[in-house]
Description:
Blueprint: E1 5-15, E2 18-30, E3 37-43, E4 51-56, E5 81-86, H1 89-92, E6 112-120, E7 135-141, E8 171-173, E9 176-180, H2 203-206, H3 212-215
Antiparallel strand pairs: 1-2, 2-6, 3-5, 3-7, 4-6, 8-9
Amino acid sequence: MNDIVLVTKVTLKATANYVTQATLKCKLAAIGASKRISAGVQLDELTAGDISSIQYDTSNNFTENMFKTNANGTEQGQTLAVIPLFDHAHAFAGYNGTPIVGTYKDAEFNPKEFTVTIHFKENSVEESKLALNKLNFFITCNATQGKRMEIHQINGKATDLFDTSAIGGVVASPNTPFRAKGNFCWVMIIPGEFSFPLEGNNLRQSFENFELWIANPDYDWYNHPFPDKVKQ
């Protein structure tokens, strides 16, 4: 759970119950992967036609040409609105190659901060359509334009470009491509800033009584780390 650690604060601007603008203030806090990682967010209740434009306050989000976009900045070939975030995490953060950075105890890493502003068409998007559970963040590994492997939350909805032939044998079922055997997952949304596991420590080793969460989903396991196992 440290291949990508992305801290995101979402702010909505609304007029008469319609959202006119959504601001994603993001911080790329760690890259614990030696593959090229890309990231995006699918808005599960909106289409590209609901969006007028997308603005980025950084200029090097896209160095690989992976996301082919429409005039308004959304990804082409998608039924739902897909907002690209970056297509090469390491290059975006200023690194050559794909070194593991930010997940070792004493290694320095300067988090990459950036803001994505989404402007919506007038009177088209109700606030309920941008609730947290409608923001479908995902990553890809070594992807190119076109069909690709995607990694979403355990019950997440794949985009139209998800390559079903890339589903591996570690999934619980072909019908649940983001749920691993043993009911494990690859992506989580954690409230607040996450003290993520240091390199070489798995999630269960890094948090006190993590197993309680499986039986009690209200248990805030993420607030009970073992200090020597997580990045402080």
